[in-house]
Amino acid sequence: MRHRLRALVAALFALPLALAIAPSAHAADPTTMTNGFYVDPDSSAKRWVAANPGDGRTPAINASIANTPTARWFGSWSGTIGTATGAYVGAADSGDKLPILVAYNIYNRDYCGGHSAGGAASPSAYATWIAQFTGGIANRPAVVILEPDSLGDYGCMTQAQIDEREGMLTGALAQFNRQAPNTWVYLDAGNPGWADPATMARRLHEAGLRQAHGFSLNVSNYFTTAENTAYGNAVNRELNARYGYTRPFVVDTSRNGNGSNGQWCNPSGRRIGAPTQLGGGAEMLLWIKVPGESDGNCGVGAGSSAGQFLPEAAYKMIYGY
Predict the structure, then answer these.
(1) For residues 83 and 70, is the Cβ–Cβ distance under 8 A?
(2) Which candidate in 40, 93, 149, 163 is catalytic?
(3) Which end of the chain is more exposed for a tag (fewer CB within 10 A), N or C?
């Protein structure tokens, strides 16, 4: 039944079966096709700095956050998605820079946590959306983080829902392989505090990791780079032992300078981490979450909504208090 459900969901993408199960054929390296990472000119931090030139916190936020290359997140708020991704990677390409994009619109998004609930209206709606997302990138170089949190928490999901989600991710990866040959796609693998390495390796594999360039860790979280590197290596050992392959991984370092205090939702006392770069213990260290953007109505962000820029939180994160 599990395989039948996954096949039904994958069929929504109208792709040949051979393509859906083919390993990643990406030969191009987008990091060698560009000269450094793209700084989003319209990030929440950039917008706040521009709107508050006289604020005492502005110089620090501008120097330490707003001008660091950071991912742009795409979802239902992005309008016509192919136009949105096309414009973003086109702007980066015109400056010979490598953009980082996050696809964040899967059906039943954040189903168990709820703070970032939403997403596409159905699996078929997601299939259409991700195909257009990918088509907008086309053959230009890019890095994409695919659906943060989607494999981290299955605790409240039925097996049918798990199969449905894995089918959507497999179909999404097939679209990237078909339409975006110069994009490195990282299937999100949560963080070291969510699932043990063997469990995460199985979830990644069943969601189509063999088709992806790699996997991402610590998105919007706080675990240190060393903790994530150890976890990523452990996941790869499980992948190799169980399925005979490994994949590179990237770490979100945007907010991990002080490590985790065990809380994930707007904890106090956190700090920005190492800036976006190649290497650093992983294939790349990336700022995927903008420091200062709220995780939701919780912690030091009480009264805020997920994604809202909180200048005081950003300012304190620069100095670690």
Answers:
(1) no
(2) 149
(3) N
Distances (CA, A) of 202 to 58, 84, 275: 45, 33, 31
For residue 11, what are its two tokens? 């069929």
Question: d(Cα 187, Cα 253) in Å, to the nearest integer?
Answer: 17
The structure tokens listed for 242 are 């169980």
Query: In whole angstroms, what is the distance from residue 111 CA to residue 147 CA?
Result: 13
CA separation for the pair 43, 71 (Å, rounded): 9
Query: Distance of CA 21 to CAs 14, 174, 208, 277, Å?
Result: 13, 8, 8, 31
Q: Look up residue 92 and give its DSSP letter.
A: H
Cβ atoms of 74 and 105 within 8 Å: the answer is yes
Q: How far apart are CA 190 and CA 110, in angstroms?
A: 12
If you count DSSP H runs as helices and E runs as strands, how many of each does the chain have, helices first?
Answer: 10, 8
- Compute how many other C-beta atoms are within 10 angstroms of the C-beta atom of residue 299: 17
Q: Positive or negative CA dihedral for 245, 141, 176, 74?
A: positive
pLDDT tens digits along 156-171: 999 999 999 999 999 9
The tokens describing 6, both together, are 């996954």
- 262 phi and psi angles, rounded to 5 deg: 95, -10
Could you list the beta-strand ranges (E) of the chain: 72-74, 100-103, 142-146, 183-188, 214-217, 249-252, 277-278, 284-286
The string of pLDDT tens digits covering residues 87-140 is: 999 999 999 999 999 999 999 997 787 667 789 999 999 999 999 999 999 999
CA distance 169 to 175: 10
Q: Output the six-digit token pair for 303.
A: 């009264």
Asked if 93 is an active-site residue, the reply is no
Nearest to 148 by CA among 99, 89, 100: 100
Gap between the Cα atoms of 134 and 129, Å rounded: 9
